[in-house]
Amino acid sequence: MRAPIGNFAHSTAAPDVLGLLTPPVADAVRGWQGDVPADQLIFVDTDPEIADTAVFVEHYGPELLDHSANCVVVAGKRGGETTLAACLVLSRTRVDVNGAVRRELGARKASFAPMDTAVGETGMEYGGITPIGLPASWPLLVDSAVLDTEWVLIGSGRRRGKLIVPGKVFAQLPGAVVLEGLGV
């Protein structure tokens, strides 16, 4: 199988490589439902040593800059309560934490969650957190521009490997809330 974007030596339908995914991501792929068949979730093997966006794009293909999205975990706080959520934005943008995120979560203050919280609560590796397999109770805030991207490169739950999925998939994930201007 050839990946629909990028210059990857190895690509495989994600359901065929569940052992290479973290347990929450593998469970989400195993139980996949939606308009897009699970075999359209493509796993590509990547070198974790060149995960930095600039080096990654140089190695695997310049068009990936326009097809990559970052998933970050945020914490919204209000009145002693903390709400964890995930945000998905195109890699060429940054998450509007103090505007769009804070408003959507109804929080007085919002910030990126500490690394140990993000890793511990998701069951994924730092630098590989992906929207597929997140806790179902979390809001998943998705920038609308991600949905308009035909194929999107995201983390696989690990630093080694990525997933390439159709952009429209993200609106169908548990807890998904599509927002204009989440990525600025």
TrEMBL record:
Q: Which Pfam families match?
A: tRNA_edit
Q: What residues form the membrane-spanning segments?
A: none
Sorted alphabetically, which InterPro entries does this protein's record hold?
YbaK/aa-tRNA-synt-asso_dom_sf, YbaK/aa-tRNA-synth-assoc-dom
The segment(s) forming the YbaK/aminoacyl-tRNA synthetase-associated domain are 49-168
What's a Gene Ontology MF term here? Answer: aminoacyl-tRNA deacylase activity
Q: Can you say what this protein is called?
A: YbaK/aminoacyl-tRNA synthetase-associated domain-containing protein
